[in-house]
Amino acid sequence: MNGHALLSIEPKVLNAFTVDVEDYFQVHNFEPTVDRRDWERFDSRVIGSTRRVLDLLDRYDVQGTFFILTWNAERLPELVRMIHAAGHEVASHGSSHHLVYEQEPSAFQAEIESARALLEQMIGEPVLGYRAPSYSITARSLWGLERIQAAGYRYDSSVYPIRRRRYGIPDAPRHPHQTAGGLVEFPMATLRVAGVNLPAASGAYLRLFPVAWSVAAIAQLNRAGQPAVVNVHPWELDPEQPRIQGGRFGGFSHYLNLHQTAARLEVLLGRFRFGPMREALRAAGFPLGNDSLASA
């Protein structure tokens, strides 16, 4: 892609900058090696790595949405206070990091209800958004959208409109939309090439492909008048994190190009407009209601 393609963007669209706040040992790829019951024995690095994300966003005067795993919030309440005090949107990533389609519907709803209640108690504001671990709202867990809405959330960002073994709904809309029940879904960003949706601007895809790939995906959506989602994990800005042996694909995707994450994010932050997911949705015409606990 040439320089003209990179610079020809739609500056008026407000995109969503999002962060899945989980620690380096909590990712799904390490489940074969790291049991959730053993999380306590690992040295947490999530406060330091989250601070790196906050400092980066502060340099570009950008607020984002932080989907917080409440297992961490319960043990490190200062993490939530730090994010909220910096003016960012606090949203929910559940508490256990279990894939949605591996849970019973009632247990899933109970977990995300309690996670939302905890975060609201900590910040004194409504928590509007939810994102499932590993984008695990798929064709076999579409029931999860009803449960998310029933748990009091107003928007979800769990659907990846791509085809992958563990996640993805390849024929899902690529832009924000309301589900049949009224919940607003804000899918992950994709690049449409030859009629196929390809992943971009999130996690390993941001690190695997050249940054021009993510720039092209965001620009493509923006030219159509649609906002895009950028997503990152704090551990992706922590190349000095301890190495965990094993896991799916030997942890390859987890450690790939960690030293380049910050620089690639700076390219995106310098080229496009970003804000919290709730503001990007409102700018796109999706009112989410009054931001008060009394009306939540």
Give the biggest beta sheet: 5 strands, parallel
The whole-angstrom Rg is: 18 Å
Q: What's the order of the H and E elements?
A: HEHEHHEHEHEEEEEHHEHHEH
The helicity comes to 25-40%
How many angstroms does the end-to-end distance come to? Answer: 45 Å
Overall shape: it is globular
Approximate strand percentage: 5-15%
Q: Can you count the helices? A: 11
Could you walk me through the main structural features you see in this protein, from its secondary elements to its overall organization?
- With 296 residues, this protein is α/β, with parallel strands linked by helices.
- It has one domain: Glycoside hydrolase/deacetylase (TIM Barrel), CATH 3.20.20.
- It has eleven helices and eleven strands.
- Strands 1, 2, 3, 10 and 11 form a five-stranded parallel beta sheet that branches. The chain has a four-stranded mixed beta sheet with strand order 4-5-7-6, with helices on one face.
- The longest helix has 19 residues, at 105-123.
- The protein starts with a helix and ends in a 13-residue tail after the last helix.
